[in-house]
Amino acid sequence: MVERLIFHVDVNSAYLSWEAARRVAEGGEDLRRIPAAISGDPENRTGVILAKSIPAKKYHVRTGEPVAAALRKCPDLVLVRPDFRLYEKNSRAFMEICRRYAPVVEKFSIDECFLDMSGTGRLYPDPVAIARTIKEEIRGELGFTVNVGISRNKLLAKMASDFEKPDKVHTLFPEEIAAKLWPMPVRALFSVGRATADKLERSGIRTIGDLAALELPRLQALLGKKPGLQLHEYANGVDSSPVLAEPEEVKGYSVSTTLAEDVTGVEHAQTILLELADSVTARMRADHARAGCISVTVRSRDFKNRSHQRTLEEATDVTKEVYEVSKALLAELWKSRVPLRLIGISLTQIAREEAVQTTLFFDEGKEKARKLDEALDSIRGRFGMDTVKRGAVFQTSLGVGKKYRAQMENRKEEGK
Q: How high is the mean pLDDT in each 10-residue block of the chain (416 residues)?
């Protein structure tokens, strides 16, 4: 049986590195050498630091903190708005280089991927040497650096790539776990969030080694049966998950917006819902999918989340249908009219178009709505999402929307 060999390739400070590489290529200043950060809108509640340079790190600027807090620490911090087209371009480019060497490459996120190098020993007898070759090729061709972690499984390879940065190759083979992994703080273990780490530390479990040595029944009593088992395996370096050549089928689509100011009016909330429905259904239609269940989530100013969902008689990809159901769900959720700071829509029970069972009765209204969606998708595909707005959204963009314009945060929910 061929022994597994897995690489994890992770771009160093991806968003900032990609912007810096573009500026250097154009003769500009290298953002990596000065206190700089990629951030959201500083005037918006959602304005946070997305990526930072090493000089900015020396001022204790942290990823995820509000822009205002970062500027208090470093008044001369250079802030750059994100450019997601640039990020997608660079993401594809570095993964294409990885595919030159690996039989199987799995995109894990926009700035990291796993390479299954199992069975390549005759071609590349020295794993560290070929990892360095990949790393240098990315830097030479694309102008930014990566870390490469090497091990026998995905978990350990990912943990290894997080060791000293930037521009490094690290190994974490099973025989190195005791020396390299176990002394690390428990909160450094992949998948351990802040709340879990706090709970473990309160119980005297401070290092990954402490977690690995803990009796499984005690850990499961503390965290639950399934989470306890997973963390016990991870702490001991156990992970059998495969490197997947193709992404798993999408289980749902969602979109949410955190608002610059709290929403108090029904008409304004419904306008936001229409824009959300327009955005999420367009992404779903691009994948030739339809949803059988619609969910609306709201968050009030006291940070309490509430949600309602409805299962449909027939799966849909029509914006108008999703919007109408979402309006009804919002009305059920928001009877108290407490000010809202977040509104979101989720579409689940996804079916591909070829598998959708349709009604026997022709619905002229639905067909007109579907043709309108197709026309808007075509125009936006050629000229951009903001080219055409639906009526209610357009009115808000001209009037109330200037005050309340929200930053959209789209994401696909991948099956796990």
A: 92 94 94 92 69 94 88 93 89 95 92 95 94 97 97 97 96 98 97 91 97 96 94 96 78 82 88 89 86 93 86 90 95 88 92 52 60 66 50 38 34 38
CA distance 116 to 97: 14
- Two tokens, residue 181: 């992994």
For the chain, what is the largest distance between any 2 Cα atoms, rounded to a whole number of angstroms?
A: 68
pLDDT at position 361: 43
Conformational region of residue 60, where left means phi above 0, alpha means psi within -120 to 50, and beta covers everything else: left
Q: How far does CA 195 lie from the centroid of its chain?
A: 20
- HEC-encoded secondary structure of the chain: CCCCCEEEEEECCHHHHHHHHHHHHCCCCCHHHCCEEEECCCCCCCCEEEEECHHHHCCCCCCCCEHHHHHHHCCCCEEECCCHHHHHHHHHHHHHHHHCCCCEEEEEECCEEEEECCCCCCCCCCHHHHHHHHHHHHHHHHCCCEEEEEECCHHHHHHHHCCCCCCCEEECCHHHHHHHHCCCEHHHCCCCCHHHHHHHHHCCCCEHHHHHHCCHHHHHHHHCHHHHHHHHHHHCCCCCCCCCCCCCCEEEEEEEEEEEEEECCHHHHHHHHHHHHHHHHHHHHHCCEEEEEEEEEEEECCCCEEEEEEEEEEEECCHHHHHHHHHHHHHHHCCCCCCEEEEEEEEEEEEEHHHCCCCCCCCHHHHHHHHHHHHHHHHHHHHCCCCCCCHHHHHHHHCHHHHHCCEEEEEEEECC
- In sign, the C-alpha dihedral spanning 189, 194, 195, 201 is positive
Tell me if 142 sits within 8 A of 136, measured CB to CB: no
What is the distance between the alpha carbons of residues 414 and 244, in angstroms, rounded to a whole number?
13
Q: Give the whole-angstrom CA distance, residue 258 versus residue 245.
A: 34
End-to-end CA distance of the chain: 28
Active site residues: 112
What is the reported pTM? 0.65
Q: What is the pLDDT of residue 380?
A: 52
The predicted pLDDT at position 384 comes to 47
Residue 415 sits at φ, ψ, to 5 deg, of: -65, 140
- Strand arrangement, sheet containing 78-80: 49-52, 36-39, 78-80
